[in-house]
Amino acid sequence: MTTRAAPILEARQVRKSFGPVEVLHGVDFSLRPGEVHALVGENGAGKSTLMKCLTGYQPVSGGEIALDGEPVTFASSDEAENRGIVLIHQEFNLAEQLSAEANIFLGREVKKGFFLDWKHMRRRASELLAELATPVDTRRPVSSLSVSQKQMVEIAKALARNARVLVMDEPTAVLTTREAKVLFEQIERLKAEGVAILYTSHKLDEISRVADEVTVLRDGSFISNRPASETDADRMARDMVGREMSDLFPQKTAPRAEAPALEVSGFSVPGYAEEISFKLAKGEVLGFAGLVGAGRTELMEGIMGLRENSGTVRRDGKDIRIASPRDAVGHGLSYLTEDRKGRGLLLKYGLRENLTLLGLDRFSRLIVDETAEKKALEDAIQRFDIRAASREGPVGNLSGGNQQKLLLAKTMLVDPEIVILDEPTRGIDIGTKQQIYRFIHDLAEEGRAVIVISSEMSEVIGLCHRVVVMRSGRITGELSGDAITEEAIVRRAMGLESEPLEEVA
Amino acid sequence: MTSANAESPPAKSKTRSAPRFDLHVWGPVIALVALVLFGMSLNDQFLSAGNVTNVLARSSFIGIIAVGATFVITIGGLDLSVGSMSAFLAGLTIIVLNAMVPSLGISWVTIIFGMLACLALGLSAGFLNGILITVGRIEAFIVTLGTLGIFRSLVIWLADGGTLSLNFELREVYRPVYYGGIFGIAWPIIVFALVAILGEIAMRKTAYGRHAAAIGSNDQVARYSAIPVERVRLVTYMLQGMLVGVATIMYVPRLGSASSTTGLLWELEAIAAVIIGGTVLKGGFGRVWGTVIGVLILSLIDNILNLTDLVSPYLNGAIQGVIIILAVVLQRGRKGAA
């Protein structure tokens, strides 16, 4: 190898804690001019946190960030940007109603006396976009641009700030294959100009193509660092997983081998899931694995009548039609959303109002029976071990774990026979996770059919009798029994093994 | 270890938020009591039966409408059209009543048909607002700003720029609905009280009220909780329309006419009363009894200024404005705590 340039931006033994929880345990990472360094890991491995530490969005709790070899502390992302370090968010940070040129110079407008020098900014914006092979009219509002054009505006914005380091958070997640190709060409060009690029993606094949160097994180720790030429998608996948199984999970008990309680066939949610078919028996825990954005949540929301859908759903062998969440609940289905704060709980309201919101008709004829509600709350607090200092206080003040237990109690209050749990342990501590695993296990023991969507491999493996793997809105595999391994799941989730194969335990 | 951690944040906020919440609840009540005491000290006629009846009866139109507005605002909506709607309903009701005189004569039967027509028209007007907002997916502000103009313009057109007057003899029959009463209490006050009590029960004790608050608080949570969000919204605008109808039924016998100035700016008074009463303008929390207090506060200010020469009655609007802004400042204090 030729001699490499000295790193522009480095993380040296960086640690980061949120409250008492440490999420980065001393990570080393460096970016060199003219190179693309890919950062890979599962969800929750600490990629985003590391990126935010590098770009001034979050201060480090330990270790240091070094710029040109000198330790620095960025007070804000603005300060990092002034030093030429720019993070491009996955969800773009553009003012939709403003023109492309206004966005490119947002906060750094060029002035002539008192007035904005539009002429200059327009010329410069056009030049930048032309260099990026995106010759759009810079006067057009950003809202009228396509997703890839918006991304190029983001990059142009970064370049207008003389970026030396570009941090790209899953830039291709929202792009079509053709749009991604344009992006890769531009990345090559930026490399040639000496820009250092940090690149993250869940698409490992893409990383092999784009990156010069690959660093793998797992559970907030540094796992490996290799030149891209010495690693491949399989190797990366192995590094990403390979966690030991602990005794977090209750012993699985065999499902009652009965006729399926739920059969879904040829089910589609336009734009998210295509031709999905699966079966679910009473007492069974069925996992849905895949990457974020694989369409699992949208599929379940479709089944619950929360999204437009088509296809057949059968309950106990009978065709049913679900047009609204109310229909779904009527047919014995209940869904726990992954978005606890945005879709699950009314954060300003107390425990009682939240608990009974889904099953309120069970507590009311003409008037809501508050006594019965209070009793139900007592029962739920007992059963799900919800710890709250005040029952009347807003649930927004509860810890994530207690919120989740309350949400689970709310979901179970309609006594569903089919329970769909979407990321049931997201953002909660390990102790509560274990409790929730126990609840899920008990639900199955009671003879309910349970679906668990999870992006945590260990959870899927530890809890589920069978696992369906999805990728890009389609089922890419189904595993059961001993065939459920992290590697098998990751390979299917990443699309390395795409033919659906039925394995019998 | 983790559980101890989990418990500490709510414990902290409980001690902190409780006193502020109380101030927020009692603020409007204290303001009302202060106004009453102030009024008593300025004029000994203030608490006379005549004056009290006058204040209450005149507040009842805005009050009945404001109870509906409490629900609309609680679901996170807004209805700017209520004042114009009331004028429009008054105009149509008068036309219907006059048209029925030849066939049904001067009788209560005619009046009752007129009342039913007024209610039905109110429901339809509310339905129109609601359907445009829910099915048409147009912002409530825009829809009701539009219908505000439409209703107002229609009544002016119906009156041909002048005044629509109720048949004189029929008016004599209808008169007691506003001027009469039972046990010395005027009918408008009784109806207002009934509407307020039923409204308070609906808000506080029924599934509908809970759903309305949930929708205003976070309509996604409501949707994911199997609440038929759009239907509840539609029903709420219809409820508002119907209550405008009720208020109009009480209003028509008062003057026996409808013109371009009927119900002018009622929507703003209703919204002001709702906000003063502690309902959150962004939705998610409504308090019907608070609205009643808000209505009373606004009428009392008007009344006190008219009874005394302390401040020019022309400054009424300015004082009401200050009170509205103060009420919102208090509301913000509560949000900070939550």
How would you explain this protein's 3D organization?
The complex is a heterodimer of chains A (505) and B (338). Chain A is built from 17 helices and 22 strands. By secondary structure, chain A is α/β, with parallel strands linked by helices. Chain A folds into two domains: 9-247, P-loop containing nucleotide triphosphate hydrolases (Rossmann fold, 3-Layer(aba) Sandwich); 260-494, Rossmann fold (3-Layer(aba) Sandwich), CATH 3.40.50. In chain A, strand 19, helix 15 and strand 20 (449-453) form a beta-alpha-beta unit. Chain B has 14 helices and four strands. In chain B, strands 1-4 form a two-stranded antiparallel ribbon. In chain B, helix 2 (49-74) crosses helix 12 (266-276) and helix 4 (108-134) packs antiparallel against helix 11. Chains A and B meet through helix 10, helix 11, helix 14 and helix 15 of A and helix 1, helix 9 and helix 10 of B.
Topology:
The complex is a heterodimer of chains A (505) and B (338).
Chain A: E1 9-18, E2 21-31, E3 36-40, H1 47-54, E4 62-67, E5 70-72, H2 77-82, E6 85-88, H3 100-104, E7 111-112, E8 115-116, H4 118-131, H5 147-160, E9 165-168, H6 177-192, E10 196-200, H7 204-210, E11 213-218, E12 221-227, H8 233-240, E13 262-269, E14 273-280, E15 285-290, H9 296-303, E16 310-315, E17 318-320, H10 325-330, E18 333-336, H11 340-344, H12 351-356, H13 370-384, H14 400-412, E19 418-422, H15 430-445, E20 449-453, H16 457-463, E21 466-471, E22 474-480, H17 486-493
Parallel strand pairs in A: 3-10, 3-11, 6-9, 9-10, 15-20, 15-21, 18-19, 19-20
Antiparallel strand pairs in A: 1-2, 1-4, 4-5, 7-8, 11-12, 13-14, 13-16, 16-17, 21-22
Chain B: H1 2-42, H2 49-74, H3 82-104, H4 108-134, H5 140-158, E1 163-165, H6 168-174, H7 176-179, E2 181-182, E3 185-186, H8 187-205, H9 207-217, H10 219-224, H11 229-255, E4 257-259, H12 266-276, H13 288-307, H14 316-337
Antiparallel strand pairs in B: 1-4, 2-3
Helix pairs in contact in B: 1-13, 1-14, 2-8, 2-11, 2-12, 2-13, 3-4, 3-5, 3-11, 4-5, 4-11, 8-9, 9-11, 12-13, 12-14
